[in-house]
Amino acid sequence: MITISLCMIVKNEEDTLDRCLSSVADLVDEIIIVDTGSTDATKEIIRKYSDQVFDFEWIYDFAAARNHAFSQATKEYILWLDADDVFKDVDRERLRALKDTLDPAVDSVTMNYHLAFDEEGNVVSSLRRNRLVKRSNGFRWIGAVHEYLEVSGNIINSDIAVTHSSIHHDSDRNLNIYEERLAGGEQFSPRDLYYFANELLDHSQYERAIRFYGEFLGTGLGWIEDNIAACGKLADCYHGLKDEDRALEAALLSFRYDQPRAEFCCRIGYHFLNKNNINAAIFWYKAAVADQPSGDQWGLRNLACSTWLPHLQLCVCYDRIGQHQMAYAHNEAARTYRPSDERILLNKAYLEAVLNPQTQAESDTSQGGDV
């Protein structure tokens, strides 16, 4: 059995930290927490679980803080989490089994990161991250903002998921850090250009975001997943500016980097649906259904775009051209993912009435008396 150090950085996390630590404390062998300046009850909560709390002066550098936490670890492997992350029960058991069976020759274990869920509890946004790494390798965090853990060697993908369950966050913090670095004359790396553009988009600064996404893609040095995501975010910028033709061009630009992905197929399908070009819309929504991402993909994926959403839109498309049986079939496919969705249930009732008018009339008569 391997031993594990949990390493975290925190600041004013009293609302989420207890929930996080209680989900993992019995699965690790030590808990190392670096505090970057809490003024609430964060430290009191930490001491319920560990006496290894280290103060670290905040220097606007997340990688520096995480590396300091890693430097305090003493066990064979290091697990990292944020305060608003948790292990659900099924993933606690998977982590327990991994700890019992992991080959010490493994350098890093990746885990899924579940970021968002729909009303039915389905994961709709997920990516994969290196979560458990061999301490002796001395892997380092890179990047002052949106930092990443640089790893190499024998990496395995696990079926364990970390669930993000945020309550609140400082929406201006990262943007302000980037703005200060930019004002100081710093030359941004391609990764910084991408994440700075993301912050600008999140703050509805569409024109500036477009500029920096363009600079990022123009370097030709971006990670392929960031390149593809940048195309989607460019489309979001143009949509925010109500320039739908340029939004379409941005979506199509993603094909430069990979085969058409479901997220972009849905974007393009929606464009043609709004133009009432139904056959084109059907083509792209079918392509979205055909793109089924694997669990090993690293980039952020919107799983709705390859499951219920294109089926729901295909229902709309086929209804518009009078192919009601096809519309019903796709609505039923969507219902397998979201059985309680009001839109899908309304479609079901409407299409059943269209396809079986006599049955529906008899039902209405039996329920409502004389018509």
TrEMBL record:
Pfam family, one: Glycos_transf_2
Claim: Mitochondrion is one of the keywords in the record: no
Protein name listed in UniProt: Glycosyltransferase family 2 protein
Keyword Transferase attributed: yes
InterPro entries linked to this entry: Glyco_trans_2-like, Nucleotide-diphossugar_trans, TPR-like_helical_dom_sf
Domain of life: Bacteria
Swiss-Prot/TrEMBL keywords: Transferase
Glycosyltransferase 2-like domain ranges (all copies): 5-124
GO molecular function, one term: transferase activity
UniProt organism field: Paenibacillus agri
